């Protein structure tokens, strides 16, 4: 598709209520988005989910069930997390409308994911830290309990609006982003290197790796930059060993 | 409230499923909109509606149940109809985003309604003709079956976005619109006048009044204009009778 909505994944982590999965599938398909990923759904497949999906049962049938968020994010260059929970800001936050526009721009060259948490508990900090961005949906400060499928509806609507309204011709060519696996690979390479050069003590690692992860996630690294960073690490080790 | 979201009514006509009423109430309150009008709900109040309303049961408790759409639109200056059904264009159609911005501008001086049809049958032409505008929500042309509560969620989100994002200071002062009752009164006055002057034959009225209604609804008449039009009608009759 020219509008790249086929590059969008909707990822529901630990959904408790099958009805929400069905309603989310309907909400997606109405906006032309069909790639659903389910991380450890409590009940799936499920008749109630099928009933609420209405004419979008095909989205459920083709859904990818995963055992972890990192599995659902394989191949993804840009992942945005929805979270109503107040937390120390682990990632930069952006309004849904701007995030959707940014995502559709990147979708020309990259796989994109929008990640939703469990109905009650939201996303864990570990899950959020696998994403590049936190999304803020403006809500009533006195009652911000957005239903899961309703949140999916708003995200998919804004993505369709961004795909249709925004002329990206005038924008700079979107970069080809590193996938989540490439970033993880680089971080492991970095950690091993830091241990070997004696900067990181595995017996007392402190918050060093989480802070580095946060930095590199926020930066939405490009493939070329991963190559460059790993080149530096390889060189660092080689020069140390040759001493 | 300074943002005038308290001037917005969400009107559900003939809703069949109590769950949708509850989900709609939650969708409204999350966005800070609390005035719910129900025209001939099939089942209300209802436990399933309460369950799905979650923390928005107060919206259901304060909902106004009406016997007709015109009752729900009493005092309303601007009513927008949501309809997925293709119909000969009876009213001007506008994208949801633009309509929400227009509505929040008018809300400074006027009561506003967003009118939703039955889950299966949508709105009748008669119901649509009581509104000023048809709203278009962009959807997948191959599957446009937007759930009722999901549609309410999108409308309330766009209203909140418009209230928060748009600075109306630079806009012209919004007009004070005629209410639906004032327009109906004028139309009855007009019809009686047209009959008396022999332009409209009650035995063979053709489509004259529906066409005039369409014209004046589309025009979103102001109070002053109603006074003016009725002044003309009064004068027309007086001059005829004095012949």
Describe this structure in words.
2 copies of one chain form a homodimer. Chain A is of the alpha/beta class and 243 residues long. Chain A folds into 2 domains: 165 residues, Alpha/beta knot, CATH 3.40.1280; 62 residues, Orthogonal Bundle (Helicase, Ruva Protein, domain 3), CATH 1.10.8. A 7-stranded parallel sheet of chain A has the order 3-2-1-6-4-7-5. In chain A, strand 1, helix 1 and strand 2 form a beta-alpha-beta unit. Chains A, B: This is tRNA (cytidine/uridine-2'-O-)-methyltransferase TrmJ.
Keyword list:
homodimer; 243 residues; alpha/beta; Alpha/beta knot; Helicase, Ruva Protein, domain 3; seven-stranded parallel sheet; globular
Which SSEs are present, and which pair or pack?
The structure is a homodimer of 243-residue chains.
Chain A: E1 8-13, H1 18-30, E2 35-39, H2 47-53, H3 57-61, E3 64-66, H4 69-72, E4 76-82, E5 93-95, H5 96-106, E6 111-116, H6 125-128, E7 133-136, H7 148-165, H8 180-196, H9 208-218, H10 223-241
**Which CATH architecture of the largest domain in chain A is right?**
3-Layer(aba) Sandwich
Radius of gyration of chain A: 19 Å
Shape of chain A: globular
Distance N to C terminus of chain A:
55 Å
The oligomeric state of the chains shown is homodimer
Strand proportion of chain A, as a percent range, falls in 5-15%
GO molecular function (chains A, B): RNA binding; tRNA (cytidine(32)/uridine(32)-2'-O)-methyltransferase activity
Catalytic activity (chains A, B): cytidine(32) in tRNA + S-adenosyl-L-methionine = 2'-O-methylcytidine(32) in tRNA + S-adenosyl-L-homocysteine + H(+); uridine(32) in tRNA + S-adenosyl-L-methionine = 2'-O-methyluridine(32) in tRNA + S-adenosyl-L-homocysteine + H(+)
Domain tRNA/rRNA methyltransferase SpoU type (chains A, B): 8-157
Organism (chains A, B): Chitinivorax tropicus
